[in-house]
Specification:
The structure holds two protein chains of two kinds.
Chain A lengths: L1 H12 L10 H6 L4 H30 L8 H23 L1 H7 L10 H12 L4 H29 L11 H16 L6
Chain B lengths: L1 H25 L6 H9 L13 H10 L12 H12 L9 E5 L20 H5 L17 H5 L5 E4 L2 E5 L8 H5 L5 E5 L4 E3 L7 H5 L11 H5 L5 E4 L2 E4 L1 H7 L6 H5 L5 E3 L9 E2 L6 H20 L3 H11 L4
Parallel strand pairs in B: 3-9
Antiparallel strand pairs in B: 1-4, 2-3, 5-8, 6-7
Classes of the chains: A mainly alpha, B alpha+beta.
Chain lengths: 190, 320
């Protein structure tokens, strides 16, 4: 039941994009087609889960014992960047098909605020290892959901007559705002 | 405190760097250096004329599969084919130089307007309205969809008809699918004869609207001793390979048999009038055409809202 609650909370109530406003750049940038948004969502899920796992261990066994908590942000960025590079090389060699489908998105999310945000978020809430990894997985599912919904709406808008002043990014931002408002309705769920 | 922070970060950075170095050695992927070489030899236009997604896709395919011939690049022609053949170790048969051909001579046939088209300035939009603005439903519309599709600026609209600049056309075929009428065709530059009309109508329906329309009487199909002419998809199609292979000994029987003089000898009538050969259909003129086009595009965009339609209507009219 706890995990179910966590799932609902991470995906809908505290949606990483629409309620916590992290990862706005891929949300607006990679949501023009459904295929692209799914690819981006998968890449973020993949990297975020790995990043949370690694940073959790670093926090626990390097930063905490030496009282270096104030270095958290910079160390996490360093580790995530290195990790993404490593994963990219690893995939290229071991799983070429996965590399081909994720390949172009991986470098984009090296310093994605959603990935870093989740790594820091689980530290702030002092979750244990398995919970943090699971929470990250759920949160990135929420990220993917937001991206796919946005892509679906944008695909519809491609067929509509939009006033010239609102074409493109302005309309994207308005839609993002409205979706965020809609997701606020989930706050009453828990 | 400064020292510990710097040392920790430097230490973590160093460890990560070592891991990455080790990973780059352990996970090195051997990429075929020939791909790079083939890419170098290809023109890099990414036009898709070879049937692959782009130059890189073709380079990979030509090296990976023995069935992919080295002469698929129409843009580069024989020189490129030779180079690609050398790198991939394939024997190259010479590519037949091809060219795009417009199967319509609407002006010559004095095709009249069915109505005055005012609307979005593209062929595909015009073609959808009651069979298009001309009496012939298979005529060139002259709004330049093919011109916009052409990656090589090899097409111009002149006198409401599309013309191909032969010196620039590389027969990539991008224009073929852009034409809603299907009147553009890629033919060998050496083609002996060509049907100058692409209509799928027959007899009276054609004769009433165009004085040089093909009435699909099929006399040429019967006359050709090489069986190079066929009635495919409701219109006359010429198999130029068979035609060229048979040679001159038929004395152009098809041309003689055509009562409406639509099947013509390309060497006599040549591309004249239909394809503009002069080198000097030149950058300036081309540039101007494009500017005109841009201007009309603007008008079209503004028309997205119905209110603006009336103000911009004169711009949208076909040039007379």
């Amino acid at each position: 039941m706890d995990y179910f609650l966590m799932f609902i909370s991470a995906v809908f109530v505290n949606n990483i994009v629409l309620a916590q406003f992290l990862g706005q750049c891929p949300y607006l940038g990679c949501s023009k087609e459904k295929g692209v948004s799914i690819g981006m969502g998968m890449a973020v899920m993949f990297v975020a889960v790995m990043a949370t796992a690694v940073t959790w261990l670093v926090q626990k066994y390097v930063l905490d014992p030496f009282a270096l908590g104030y270095l958290q942000t910079i160390v996490f960025i360093l580790i995530i960047a290195g990790l993404v590079q490593f994963v990219e090389m690893f995939l290229k060699k071991i799983m070429p098909p996965l590399y081909k489908s994720l390949g172009i998105y991986l470098p984009l999310i090296t310093t994605n605020c959603c990935v870093l945000g989740l790594a820091i978020l689980v530290q702030r809430d002092a979750m244990d290892f398995s919970t943090s990894v699971l929470y990250t997985l759920f949160a990135t599912l929420g990220f993917m959901l937001a991206l796919i919904l946005m892509a679906g709406i944008r695909e519809r808008f491609a067929l509509c007559r939009v006033p010239r002043a609102l074409q493109g990014t302005p309309l994207g931002l308005i839609m993002a705002g409205l979706m965020s408002l809609c997701f606020m309705a989930f706050k009453g769920m828990i | 405190m400064v020292l510990t922070s710097v040392l920790t970060l430097a230490g973590i950075g160093l460890i990560l760097a070592l891991i990455l170095v080790a990973a780059s050695l352990a996970f090195r992927v051997e990429e075929d250096p020939r791909v790079e070489a083939v890419l170098e030899a290809l023109p890099g236009a990414n036009c898709g004329g070879c049937g692959y997604a782009g130059c890189e896709a073709y380079a990979q395919a030509v090296l990976a599969s023995p069935d992919v011939p080295a002469n698929l690049c129409t843009v580069g022609g024989n020189d490129t084919a030779t180079k690609v053949g050398e790198i991939s170790g394939k024997t190259v048969t010479a590519t037949e130089p091809m060219i795009c051909f417009r199967r319509c001579s609407r002006h010559e046939g004095q095709v009249e307007h069915r109505y005055h088209y005012v609307g979005v300035n593209t062929c595909s939009a015009a073609a959808q309205l009651e069979g298009g603005p001309y009496m012939c439903s298979w005529s060139c519309l002259g709004y330049g969809d093919c011109m916009r599709a052409c990656p090589f600026d090899a097409m111009v609209v002149r006198d409401d008809l599309i013309e191909v600049i032969t010196s620039r056309c590389v027969a990539c075929g991008c224009c073929i699918s852009a034409c809603p009428r299907g009147i553009l065709q890629i033919i060998p530059q050496r083609a002996r004869v060509m049907c100058f009309c692409a209509t799928k109508e027959k007899m009276k329906n054609v004769a009433d609207v165009c004085s040089v329309g093909c009435i699909n009487c099929l006399q040429c199909v019967k006359a050709c001793p090489a069986q190079a002419i066929s009635y495919t998809n409701f219109r006359i199609e010429i198999n130029h390979n068979a035609c060229l292979a048979y040679g001159d000994k038929c004395g152009e029987a098809c041309v003689a048999s055509c009562s409406r003089k639509i099947l013509r000898n390309m060497r006599v009538h040549g591309p004249a009038g239909l394809i503009c050969t002069d080198e000097a259909a030149s950058p300036q003129e081309l540039g101007q055409e494009q500017k005109d086009d841009d201007a009309t595009q603007e008008g079209t965009d503004a028309k997205a809202s119905p209110l603006a339609a009336q103000e911009t209507a004169p711009q949208g009219q076909p040039k007379e």
